[in-house]
Write a structure and sequence with these properties.
The complex is a heterodimer. By secondary structure, chain A is of the alpha+beta class. Chain A has one domain. The radius of gyration of chain A is 30 Å and the shape is elongated. Helices cover 35% and strands 19% of the residues of chain A. By secondary structure, chain B is of the alpha+beta class. Chain B has one domain. Chain B has two helices and four strands; from the N terminus they run αβαβββ. The model of chain B has no long low-confidence stretch (mean pLDDT 87). Chains A and B meet through strand 7 of A and helix 1 and helix 2 of B.
Amino acid sequence: MNLANRARGQKEDGAMLLEFALVIGVVAAFIFAIIDVGRVLLIQHVLDKATENAVSDAKVATDLRFDVRQWAAVTDQAAEDRFLSKREAILLRAEELALTTAHPADSDAPAVLSSYRLVDDPAPTPHHVVLLLPGQSVERVSRKRDGGYERTVVEHPTCPRDNCVEFGLAGGLGNTQMLRRHPIVAEAHATVDTLLFGRLTTTARALAWMEQGARGSGDARLGLPEPRVLPPPPVYNSVPTTGTQGASRPAPPPPPPRYIPG
Amino acid sequence: MFLEAALALGVLIIFFTGILDIGRAASNYFLLVNASNEAVRLAARTPDLTEGVYSAGSQQQLPVSHQEVQARAFEVIRAMRTDAQLDNVEVQTACDPAEDLVRVEIAGTYRSILTLYRGIRMNVEQTSSYLPAAACQEVS
């Protein structure tokens, strides 16, 4: 090999190295981006599941039919206590799933859940999942992009606290009608620290309408109609069976009564 | 080399925008699925649905029971996503006494980023058996 060829070969080696460096940079960024997106999607999925659990519990809980407008002048303390304890149970169950993946106390956790505090609530316990009933609003405390914390007021999407026609009507719609017209909303929010995109936020929101004739107790006391109970269907056991003893088959236990909306 | 890079970059940008667009379209599609799911649940539990097929915004008179079901579908779309990229959303509800079924159909046009396939029409249909001991109400 003469000197000119050797020099050309060295030049090509350098070009190859440069191309490799460029390509490896792009490929590495691509792979990190996939990892980041995967992490955000994981957190989003967990929050989706937590909020769906919360609303699916809430929509069949008659104790949640307590009229939050009564907080100014409580007329039924027992109903309010049942409401608060039921809501606490639902939120704790929903949070359990989210907290297994993202814990606010861990500094190296994949995500940090934001906390919520209901405005004008008699039991303002902060939670990482919130249940918003019509006419309620909530304050969300989340991490900012550049450190520190920010507070955001989240309103009910269809019946905001200060701008809901039905909520403001004195002697207007009852709470049952309110809950039929407007959904129960569950929300969860988290910030995820990513390798490439910095701090990203993700929000999950699920909504459901209160089921009519839901299981539970206290409907009559809260001014709601009791669910109608249908008579059990007839049991066909009159045909004798010829067993070894010649005795007829024992009648099966009666089925549980069926509930249909009142 | 610059020409090659420019060509490749153009193709790549279209490729990634397409991926983003498909993701957004899927998100809007599942919004319609959620809305129809919630609406058909309400329809199945409403005991006095008038028999027949009813569309929101059509000339025919819409029974109150069907209005409530259709309003539920719109409300889900509004409450779940304030920035849904959907145009011309139409809801159709039906109660079929012969099959004892209720049906909700929602259609909407997705506003895409790329103009290559602007105006994708998405259509979702959900059917459910009607509430036990209930029947479609005859048209009076």
